[in-house]
Amino acid sequence: MTLNSNISRVFAIAALALAATNFAGAAKAEEANFVKLMTANFLPRDVAQVEIGAFRFLPGQIAPIHTHVAPAVGYVAKGSIVYQAEGGKPVVLREGDAFYEPAGPRILRFDNASATETALFYDFSLEQTGEPFFVLEEQPRRPIDRSGLPTVDIGGKTIDHVDVYETELESGQTVTLENSDPTIFLVAQGVIDVQIDETTSQHLVTGETFAMPSSGSNASLTNASSEVEAKVISYVLR
């Protein structure tokens, strides 16, 4: 598949909400609508871990030219980004958009599109053992504000694509999931209480992540707020 066709697939956002049964085997989901944001396709690779970074770019901040040894998928949580991979045209990623940075081609632009507003985005790097998050060709003009989030051990599972979904939970709503593939979740908005396999409980706020790295796990997600809608982004590794 060519880079251009990959990029065109990256930014095609489905308008139709998927049935819960189509999401990672989530047959038990309660009143949940999962919207597919993106599918990122790449050559099969044995993924040892998924390294996650949160990046904050100041108004007008420009990213240095860089490459990814491992494919990376991500999400724009705030602001807008001008993105251009080598061989492709510049595109503008807006708040709520998912994106894909392929392994190999130089990333010519990944810049804050606004001269007045901060941008915030999350990158998920699907790494084999020993691979770096990215490789810079030059030092950045401004220091890069990157916060590391917990790295998820995948155990060498062979992956050739990632499906990205978005779901919104009303105040107090609970969704029950059963995954058939490794899945990583980002709380993009609100506060979520998570119970995994009836053993692990977590209280997570906006910007935090959790994972179901093994198939056959069960989880319940509850919007812990009585007033604010919650939004969760799901990365299903297949």
TrEMBL record:
Signal peptide: 1-26
Record key words, sorted: Signal
Annotated Cupin type-2 domain residues: 55-117
Pfam families on file: Cupin_2 (PF07883)
PANTHER family cross-referenced by the UniProt entry: CUPIN DOMAIN PROTEIN (AFU_ORTHOLOGUE AFUA_3G13620)
Protein name per Swiss-Prot or TrEMBL: Cupin domain protein
